[in-house]
Amino acid sequence: MVLGGLRALVYAVVGGAALLAVATVASVLGPVLALDLYTPAVAAWWTVFTAIAVQAVPFLLLGTVVSAAIGAFVPERVFTRLLPRNPALAVPVAGAAGVVLPGCECASVPVADSLMRRGVAPAAALAFLLSAPAINPVVLVSTSVAFPGQPGMVLGRFVASLATAVVMGWLWVRFGREEWLRPAKRRGHDHDHGSGAGAFVAGLQHDFLHAGGFLVVGAAAAATFDVVVPPALLDVPGWAAVLLLALLAVLLCVCSEADAFVAASLTGFSPTARLAFMVVGPMVDLKLIALQAGTFGRAFAIRFSAATWVVAVTSSALVGWWLL
Q1: In this model, does residue 130 exceed pLDDT 60?
Q2: Could you tell me if 279 and 316 are in contact, meaning their C-beta atoms sit under 8 angstroms apart?
Q3: Which residues are CB-contacts of 3 (< 8 A; sequence separation ≥ 6)?
Q4: How far is it, in rounded angstroms, from Cα 55 to Cα 310?
Q5: What is the pLDDT of residue 213?
Q6: What residues contact residue 175 under an 8 Å CB cut-off, 6+ apart?
Q7: Which three-class secondary structure state does DSSP give residue 299?
Q8: Which class for 108: exposed (0-12), middle (13-18), buried (19 or more C-beta within 10 A)?
Q9: Structure pTM?
Q10: What is the torsional sign of CA 310, 98, 65, 186?
Q11: Residue 128 and residue 97 in contact, taking contact as beta carbons nearer than 8 Å
């Protein structure tokens, strides 16, 4: 089993390196081909697209390896032993646990479901659901690389994301109702692979391919946005820009390990607006809403996603005003 896990890790590293090499070659040949076709706009699009992809792939690979390892080798009883019994006190502890127990966005939903079924307070499980993909070390390091020389952006992302997770947990303590949580009849999910080396292999394969697809879509959308949208249209008031990128984050569904590079490419927007893009994306996007609806019920997904979006945007605006 250990050999199987090592083999999967080697395959993932080799596959990631091959993908990175292909993207690098494409970044050189793409603009040349575009210029040969007398389409400078296509050359600019390809340059932005490959710049985002080449920078993001290593972090995406590292993030999926860590996420798969956590899901396969960290027992869920760790959470129940570490969390206080008082839900209000358990919320900030569960939110902070996202720093040391990271996971991808789509993995966080079944993990939260599993924690609830094992006796963890729903408020704490939901706080972890939001924080794990948003403040883990891979995400913070990728943000520092995407925004070199801007430590305020890294700190702002950490503070705004953690604040959103904790506030949402406390809101559930105060206003949440058990009847809103209606577990799906079928507990099976792509991430529910059991434990051990086999689970690591399955989780790594699923996460890397799944998140890689969204990265490609997100990079393409960001490049298109950067090339097609006239700069004059980006000259909008601060709050309007924040709301625009917060909505864009919901639609693009970019993996949290790579969304900082997409945000960094949106140079026409203010730092606060780009911060909102990075805070909202790992917590509220179309794929997460679908996963929450399938796991906990549509009524929960609608209420929880809408409230999270409002809290995340507000937190981003306040933190951006304070730090950026």
Answers
A1: yes
A2: yes
A3: none
A4: 30
A5: 67
A6: none
A7: helix
A8: buried
A9: 0.72
A10: negative
A11: yes
User: Can you give the length of the chain in residues?
Assistant: 324
E strand or H helix at 108: helix 105-117
Q: Which amino acid is residue 288, in one-letter code?
A: L
DSSP-assigned states of every residue in 203-269: HHHHHHHHHHHHHHHHHHHHHHHHHHS-GGGG---HHHHHHHHHHHHHHH---TTTHHHHHHH-TTS
Cα angle 174, 247, 163; round to 5: 35
Q: Kindly report the number of other CB atoms within 10 A of residue 175's CB atom.
A: 10
DSSP 170-197: HHHHHH--GGG----S----TT---SSH
Contact 201, 5 (CB under 8 A): yes
Tokens linked to 91: 């919320």
Residue 237 contacts residue 229 (beta carbons within 8 Å):
no
Q: How far apart are CA 296 and CA 139, in angstroms?
A: 27
Distance CA 293, CA 9 (A): 32
Percentage of residues of the chain with pLDDT beyond 90: 30
- Is residue 4 within 8 Å of 197, Cβ to Cβ? yes
CA angle 179, 180, 181 (to 5 degrees): 90
Per residue in 270-303, pLDDT (tens digit) is: 999 999 999 999 999 877 887 788 778 888 989 9
Alpha carbon separation from 115 to 92, 119, 203, 297 (Å, rounded)? 16, 7, 18, 17
Look at residues 131, 133, 132, 155 and name the one whose alpha carbon lies nearest to residue 143.
155
